[in-house]
Amino acid sequence: MEKPEKGAGGGRSRDARGEAGATVNRRDFLRVVAVAGGAAFLGTAADAEALYDLSGWPDRMGMLTDLTECVGCRSCEAACNAANRLPAPEVPFDEKSVFEQKRRPTANAYTVVNRYEPPKSGNPVYRKVQCNHCEEPSCAAACPVRAYTKTPEGAVLYDKDVCFGCRYCMVACPFYAPAYDYESALEPRVVKCTMCHGRVKAGGVPACAGACPMGAVVFGKRKELLSVARDRIRKHPDRYVDRIYGEVEAGGTSWMYLSGVPFGELDFPTKLPGKPIVENTKGFLSAVPLVLTLWPALLGMCYAANRNKEEKE
Amino acid sequence: MNTDYLVKADTFTARFLDKLTMGMPLSEYARRLVTPFNAVAAVLLSLGLPLIGLRFWKGLATVTHASNEYPWSILLGWGLFSGVPLSATGYVMATAVYIFGFKKYHPLVRLGVLTGFMGYLFAVIYLLIDIGRPWRIYYPMAVSFGPTSVLFLVAWHVATYLTVQLLEFSPAILEWIHARRTRRWAILITVAMTIAGVILSTLHQSALGALFLMAPGKLHPLWYSAFIPVFFFISSIYAGFCMVIAVSTVASRYLRDKADGQFLDSLDGLTVGLGKGACIAMFVYFALRVIGVAHDDNWALLATPYGYWFLTEIVLFVLAPCVVLTVGVKHRSARIVRAGAFHALAGVVLTRLNISILMFNWNLPGHFQAIVPPVREVLIVLSIITLHILIFRWILNRMPVMREDPAYQEEPH
Fold first, then answer.
1. Do B68 and A104 lie within an 8 Å CB cutoff?
2. Closest listed residue to residue B121, CA positions, set B87, B151, B94
3. Looking at beta carbons, which residues of chain B come within 8 Å of A185?
4. Considering the domain boundaries, does residue B22 fall inside one?
5. Biggest CA-to-CA distance, chain A
6. Distance (Å, rounded) from C-alpha B151 to C-alpha A94?
7. What is the average pLDDT value for chain B, to the nearest integer?
8. pLDDT over 70 at A36, yes or no
9. Domains of chain A by start residue, with CATH
């Protein structure tokens, strides 16, 4: 059975096909229901749908890391540490032995660089890891106390003052970005890159981008960075794989990457949906009000039916 | 005037002590506490409770294997994700009796509601140890709202449902302290509280599964399914029935003198009936799990080691206990049904641990080393389980749960 489409549109397409007989009557009936039940209502619903389809803050900023340029000097790590007044590292930032292990951002480091030796590449490839500042962040959608904000400038910021430490944001983050201060007994916080939000607001650039001697990390409007990235791939098809990581992953991220080897070889999660992950919970969450309203009525009816039976007996 | 006051206080103290020691002189009561079970309990508590102290002194890092990749450890894998379905007892029993009219199960309702209430209370206790700043646990309810979060729903529902279950159990407490008039009020709200309980349970049991919808790619695809909320809800129904069978089995065996004749005489027959209910839910659940594989076209994954583990779970821990229960129901054998119920409960816990721990981050290097809990965390869990059992026993020993108080037999229930 054809469902009446939004408003009268379904009716129009039926007329065009010119069906006849009982079918028409039934469909006419459906159309009447659709129109009477909600012409005005569905009209506004369609508008709301248009409003809902936000494509993000218009002038949001982003970062582009070109992994083919990175030489693994760790200047970005040092600059990040200084800019965010983080504790001094256990081994100094010019120490290369850290590359023997794969590291990840921690409560004391917003960003780390890892070294990879992909099979088909003659040289090692370095990958900088930090929060990717999603366009529609999973951490923010998962947070029960709304401790996360996607700012108009692009950064995803965390507010320790409302956080109670459930760590669902860490479960939800597809990039394993947030770290947690497990060492702290009473004031643990989630820790992650802020895309140097304060510096950006003051007209500066994030510390890592400012410190990179190779220009491997650049800061700019996300829109422009995307076209820069596309240009580079077009001009040097032999240098890059044909993919901008972060363009669509999990609905897109502010931080994007270019690479000379497939991203999977550098431990990038490559099987993420191309839409915001929060979409996966929307079906469930929209069933919630239905249960809240339908269950009492249905269960109340069961109860009444049983009372009725008892009274007869 | 002063002496009057003292006499009064003295009677109150005496009555109070009488309640606590179950009418025995203090020395007699103390003597009876010396049992092998209590000795083991004392050892576990003396090991585990200081470790909980350590968590609040030196941080979670000193007691759990939780890490930046594995934010949730067995404190939640066991305490929340396994504990909540095992506590579905309250809503399934109250609904069966008060809404669907299966009146003959009435002797088991209070035991079911108490099991549920205690289960949720302890789920919250595990949470309070695990979360970073437990004194902010009310923040989702009062300070900052995150309605896009499935966990926001869980927080609200668990808090509300804990209150609902306390109200549902309150008649037993009120009978214990002889508050006849208040008890009448508590009885009046039974049906409303039962319906509230089903709504809240439907939503948060399924929401515990929906939490993992945010982790595609982290949870193995055989366990990640759009149906996961339904899986969690349906499995909570049979977990509830089986848990009532399990708890009544243990309680009627070890606290036989606290149950009345009606409870003990009807127990075997009611156990078979509950087994029947569990069977139906389990067949539905098994079918849904298979449909889940078909829905995502994951058949090929069944021929991998993870697939064998998946098959172990749904065949040996869902279908097999379901068959045992069916045989027990056919032969009207409470013994077989009890065996099937314990088996099914092991399956529920296995599924929840699979989803929250074993199959979470399955593709990270070093996964199976990372999920082994440290001894300290195991001791914490064991000590909380011990505390749970002790408090449960304390209540069963004192309040009319497995028996009807003769003084209230004429009153509405």
1. yes
2. B87
3. 55-59
4. no
5. 89
6. 42
7. 94
8. no
9. 1-53 (no CATH), 61-137+175-266 (3.30.70.20)
pLDDT digits (tens, 9 = 90+) for B13-22: 887 888 888 8
Alpha-carbon distance A277 to nearest alpha carbon in chain B (angstroms): 6
Buried b (16+ CB within 10 A) or exposed e, B170-185: bbbbbbbeeeeeebee
Is B4 exposed, middle or buried, given 0-12, 13-18 or 19+ CB atoms closer than 10 A? exposed
Q: How many domains does chain B have?
A: 1
How far apart, in whole angstroms, are the C-alpha atoms of residue B175 and residue B191?
Answer: 19
Instruction: Determine the distance in angstroms separating the CA of A221 from the nearest CA of chain B, rounded to an integer.
Output: 28
Interface mutation vs chain B, best among A139, A167, A181, A294, most B CBs within 10 Å: A167
Contact between residue A224 and residue A218 where contact means Cβ atoms under 8 Å apart? no
| Cα-based angle A262, A249, A79 (whole degrees, multiple of 5) | 75
Residues listed for chain B: 413
The nearest CA of chain B is from the CA of A179 a distance in Å of 5
For residue A74, what are the contacts with CB-CB under 8 A and spacing of at least 6? A93, A94, A98, A113
Look at residue B331 and tell me if it is in a domain. yes
A161 pLDDT band (50/70/90 cuts)? very high
Quick check: A35 pLDDT over 80?
Answer: no
Cα A37 to its chain centre, rounded Å, is 37
Q: For residue B94, is it within any domain?
A: yes
Chain B residues near residue A146 by CB distance under 8 angstroms: 144-146
- For chain B positions 218-257, those within 8 Å of chain A (CB to CB) are 218, 226, 229
How far apart (Å, rounded) are the C-alpha atoms in residues B367 and B369?
A: 6
Q: Which of A111, A146, A159 to mutate against chain B (most B CBs within 10 Å)?
A: A146
Query: Residue B344: inside a domain, yes or no?
Result: yes
Strands (E), A252-310: 255-258
Mean pLDDT to the nearest integer, B307-321: 98
Q: Check pLDDT > 90 for residue A33.
A: no
CB spacing of A273 vs B99 below 8 angstroms: no
| Domain range for B98 | 35-402
Burial class (CB in 10 A: 0-12, 13-18, 19+), A10: middle
B149 contacts on A by Cβ (under 8 Å): 141-144, 168
CB-based contact (8 Å) between B202 and chain A? yes
Q: Are residues B148 and A189, on separate chains, in Cβ contact within 8 Å?
A: no
Tell me the residues of chain B between 118 and 137 that have a Cβ less than 8 Å away from chain A: 131-134, 136-137
- The answer, for B100 touching chain A at a CB cutoff of 8 Å, is yes
Distance from CA of B309 to the nearest CA of A (A): 22
